[in-house]
Write a structure and sequence with these properties.
Number of domains: 2
Largest sheet: 6 strands, antiparallel, barrel
Oligomer: single chain
Number of strands: 6
Shape: elongated
CATH architecture of the largest domain: Beta Barrel
Strand order of the largest sheet: 1-4-3-2-5-6
CATH topology of the largest domain: Elongation Factor Tu (Ef-tu), domain 3
Length: 197
């Protein structure tokens, strides 16, 4: 991969100068790894910068391109997800799945598998029934979220406008059929296009 054509260099150039992560990672460190042809280390450092400082969708698209060039398919998928978050907005939450005995799901939710459950987000239809919103679910970490357990998740609402009234510590319920199968406490919100660019 030629440095000048590298999607990693282009991603680094999108980062504002002077930003640092809590672990003291900055763009200069990324550039050093690129000059040494250490593409994977540069990719990981750019991801850390993106985690610490909101980045535009293009940044994450470039990381996805680089991951594909490095044959890192799971990473490419993850960066594509992050691009969607930056573009469309996302909800970060701690989801607790009900156990099968409580009427919850019988199978775990693996990380990186797309589920599109419905969520009771506190809105009502004109008839007074809960208006359920759809959001794509991503389980964080490497382990599956098993029935009866809790874990960190990321939600991509299909219509973020319906979710704008939510704030951290609000609780929403997850539905795959009519009865709820879990409850999620919101821990953070990523607004659409909230990157400062």
């Amino acid at each position: 991969m030629d440095l000048q054509d590298s999607p990693l260099l282009k991603a680094a150039q999108l980062c504002p100068g002077g930003i640092r992560t809590k672990t003291d990672v900055d763009v200069a460190g990324v550039l050093e790894h690129l000059e040494d042809d250490d593409w994977e280390a540069a990719l990981l450092l750019l991801e850390e910068i993106g985690d610490a400082h909101p980045q535009p969708p293009r940044f994450w698209d470039l990381l996805a391109d680089a991951a594909r060039l490095l044959w890192l398919a799971k990473d490419a998928y993850w960066y594509g997800w992050r691009s969607s978050e930056a573009r469309n907005g996302a909800i970060l939450a701690e989801l607790c799945l009900m156990s099968p005995e409580e009427g919850g799901r019988t199978r775990p939710v693996p990380p990186g598998v797309v589920l599109r459950p419905m969520w009771d987000i506190g809105l009502l239809t004109p008839e007074g029934e809960p208006l359920l919103g759809i959001a794509i679910l991503w389980v964080e970490g490497r382990d599956s979220l098993k029935p009866g357990e809790c874990g960190s998740v990321r939600l991509l609402p299909l219509t973020f406008e319906h979710w704008r009234h939510l704030k951290p510590d609000d609780v929403i319920t997850m539905h795959e059929i009519r009865p709820p199968v879990g409850a999620a406490r919101i821990t953070g919100i990523i607004l659409p296009g909230a990157t400062g660019f």
